[in-house]
Each structure stands twice: as structure tokens, then as C-alpha cells.
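Q: what does this look like with flavin-adenine dinucleotide bound?
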Amino acid sequence: MSLRTGKLGHADYGGTLEVAADVAVIGAGAGGCAAAFALARRGLKVAVFEEGRHWSPADFKPDNPFALRNLYQDQGTRAAIGEGLMPINGGRGVGGSTLINSAISFRTPPQVLSGWRERFGFDPEGSFERRLDEVWETLGIIVNPENVQGRNNTIFRDGVEALGIPGGAFMHRSAPGCGGCGVCQLGCPSGGKNSADRTFLARALLSGNVGVYADCRAESVESDGGRVTAVGGRVLDHDFNTVGTWRVTAPRFVLSGGPIGSPRFLTANGMAPNDHVGRHLRLHPASAVCAKFDEPIRHWWGVSQGYYVDRWEEGFLLETGTVTPDVSFMALPLALGEEINQVMADLPYLAAAGAMVHDEDTVAEVGATTISFSFGEQDRRRLIQGLRACARIFFAAGARYAVPPVTGLGILRPGDDLDAALSLDLPFHRIRALSSHPMGTCRMGTDPDTSVVGPDGRVWGWENLHVADASVFPSSLGVNPQVTVMACGLMIGDAAAAAEGA
Ligand SMILES: Cc1cc2nc3c(=O)[nH]c(=O)nc-3n(C[C@H](O)[C@H](O)[C@H](O)COP(=O)(O)OP(=O)(O)OC[C@H]3O[C@@H](n4cnc5c(N)ncnc54)[C@H](O)[C@@H]3O)c2cc1C
């Protein structure tokens, strides 16, 4: 029983895998990869276990069914149930959701960070800005040049400028080599995106102290009093068949299964310190408008999400977005018939952008098998206001028509009364929304009765178990989260290393 270093998968294990390490990290997403790096650079032997597989750019295909089956949690079927269904996207594989994200990069908004510090004891060392700098540098974050942005992004900018709306800009992205092929959410086939596996985890592997065990789903825990002594589970092949078992012993564990996986793991193993585990789920619900122009847009070409408008005071961000033609068809809120046929025929001329709300009064939680939500009044109104803004911007840029994501509404044309069509009374179940940014389900705080982990990421009541992923956010972030998640991974990884005397 020892630590094998390097990248390993199910074919390397035989029937039963036994590993011993200084620290075991469960889940290799944004948080887990950053935590593994922080631990390894302090000389610790780190074993990382991930239920999905290792990927390289050549493995990805510009094919939605392939991506959903192989790269998405629950093969793309994960959704929250409330006033309708809200898909909740998440990645599966070494790199986690960063394998399929759009590389949009924001630092933690200062007002959010100061609120977390004051109210939740976040970042007791005052080191978070330095950690954000480190993430920024490690991911090679830049603004992609205009020649790869594509017209989908620049036409939205044109509308923003025509209306004189402040707060618009091309977004920073962790894709310095982006060639604009527009399929970030199917896995980056060019290697132009710096996902967590290609940055933090690759650097951790260079230390020679790290083994990354793919195809290993964590399911069970052994413990002694308030200490975890081992974690184990099943080995899966790439068709999801169980082909073995695994078990790791270590003096310290870091759980990084993401904001859905981590609370479920704690609850399933009877480790929840209180009933806040799985609660306080924040979703950043998002919804998009598409619009038809006279000139070809070819929204599938160019940076997949390149331009944004910050409407912080109004509680939302506007961001451009693209999807592949098959997803465009499924996403259109139009009944089968002439209208949708016409819109699909116009596909090369369509642009798309959406609103993402900060998520303040929606109540949502992760249960053992379900995710539930009750959409907040304020969030609903903000989402509708964001959609109105998108439609206005498109009309200012010259759109011939716009299709808001509202069932039963149909197509809007220039001069239509947008406020009446997108009435603030629209019920949420008529709006097609999704979430790619779940967070907050093991929230950090200083009060063991109202939070799940303390400021060092340690689960209350457990001496040697930390959580390092988006679930530790004390509240909604309000911007795309990967940079903040990775900075949390570094902070909590360092705290776990310090607890081991490293
Ligand atoms: C489609 C999409 C687009 C996005 N776009 C952006 C963007 O442009 N910019 C941005 O900032 N953010 C974006 N995000 C969000 C961002 O990627 C996530 O917030 C971030 O990756 C979350 O990090 P995490 O460590 O919490 O979880 P994840 O990165 O999701 O990683 C969790 C990992 O744990 C594994 N796991 C779970 N349970 C177990 C278990 N029991 N055993 C073993 N392994 C397990 C999972 O397979 C997964 O690999 C996007 C997300 C999605 C899904």
C-alpha cells in the first residue's frame, strides 16, 4: 500500500486499489486541483481521487451527446425542481467543471469579499487578494483579441455602445490560446483553455508528490471518533460499470466534490455537523435572448462568451453566449411549427446574450437525490429586467426581431412594448433558466451552529476533514466563480497543509 504518482486510471488498478498518502483530495475540479497544488508544494504526498476520467484536448469532440454523456454530471440530466425545472450543469472528469466552462474570469468582487470577512470570518489571514493574483497568473488570464471574439460578441458591444450603457467590456478569460472555435462547453479541443487540470494539477504533478487516481467514485468513510481514517468507493470504467474498489488512508482529507457532490457525500456518510449541509444553495440563474440581424453572425464561431455588462446595482450581469445549432433548437421557447422553422432557418443571422442574476432571495437546497428551489420574487424581477436589457441592446444594434426565453410569448419586433411583453408579473415557470454556478451548500462561517465549515475549511466536529470547493462560499458571489473557487482551494489547501505541520 503506497502512493503511486502521476496520472492513473481504472486500467492501472487491478481489482482492489489501496493507497496511503499524507493528504487525500476527493474530487478534481477547480477547488480540488488548486488544493492539491497548495498541499504538494509544501512537500506533502497527495492522492487525488476523481470519479470521471483524465482528458486531453485530442479526446474532446464537438458533439453534444458525446459531451453530455462523458463530461457532464448525471450525463447532463441534473436539474433542480421548483416552479418548473432548472438544469444545473456540472462537469465530471479530472478538471471538473473547468473542463466545460467558458473560461470567464472575474476576481471576487471587493464588496462581496469584505462582507464575507466581516460576517463569516472568511480569510482570517487577509491573504485572499494574493491568492486571487496567483490564480490569475497560473491560469494565464487575458482578454482575447478582437479577431477571435466573433460577431456574436461584437454586435452586442455595438448595441451597448449605441445605448450608451456603462459597464460593458470584453471579459477576461483563462483561455490565452483561444482560437474562437466556440465549443468551450464541450471540452476545449485546441488546448487553448487553461482548465484546472492543465494548470494547478499539472504543476502539482510536476512536484513528483502527487498521484491522480481517475475513475474512482468516493462513497464511504471510515472514522474513529472525530477523525476520518479512510475513504473508499468504486472504480468505474468509461461505460460507468463497476470494475473494482478503492480505499485510501491518510491523516488528513480534503473533500472537493463540488457544491452538489460534497454535501451529498457528507450527508450520505452521516458526517453532517448540522442541518445546514446542502442548504443555502445559490444558483446564479441565467436565461438568454436571441436576436436576428441582417448580417451573418454565425454565433457558433468566436469566443463562446466574450462580452459582458455589469449591472451590479440592479442585481445582474449581462453576458453574451453561444450554443451549438442542436442546442439552439432545443432552447428556443417556440412551439413546433412555422415560427420555429423560420427562426432555425435564420440561425446564421442570430446572436445570443443573457442575464445572470446575483441570486439573493431564491431558496434552494441539495437533498440526497433531488435539488429543490423556490424562486425569489426579487430574483425573478431582476431576471426579467436583465432580459429586457438584452432585447433593448439587440434592437439598438439593429436586430429585426428578438426571441426572449419565455414560453407562449413568441417573437418581438422593433417598436414592440418590451416592458409589457416582458412584464414583471411573468411567472418564473414560463422563463427558461439554467444554472452553471451552484455554490454555498457547505458554507463557511465562525458559528458551528449556522455554518458547515470553519474559516480553515474544516468541517465542524471533524478534526481532519476539510471542504475546498464552491460549496464553501458563504453567500452568492454575483460573478462567474471559477477564480474565487480556485483561490478558496489554495487557501484551504494551505490550511490543511499547516494542520499537518507542513
Ligand atoms: C457549463 C459550465 C460553464 C461554466 N462557465 C464558467 C465560466 O466561464 N467562468 C467561471 O468562472 N465559472 C464557470 N462555470 C462554473 C465553474 O466552472 C465552477 O463554479 C467551478 O468549476 C466549481 O468548482 P468546484 O471545485 O466546486 O467543482 P467542480 O469543478 O464541478 O469539480 C467537482 C469534481 O468533483 C467530482 N466528484 C463529485 N463527487 C465525487 C465523488 N463522490 N467521488 C469522486 N469525485 C467526485 C466531480 O466529478 C467533479 O470533477 C461554469 C460551469 C459550467 C458547468
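The first strand starts at residue 6 and ends at 8. The first helix runs from residue 30 to 40.
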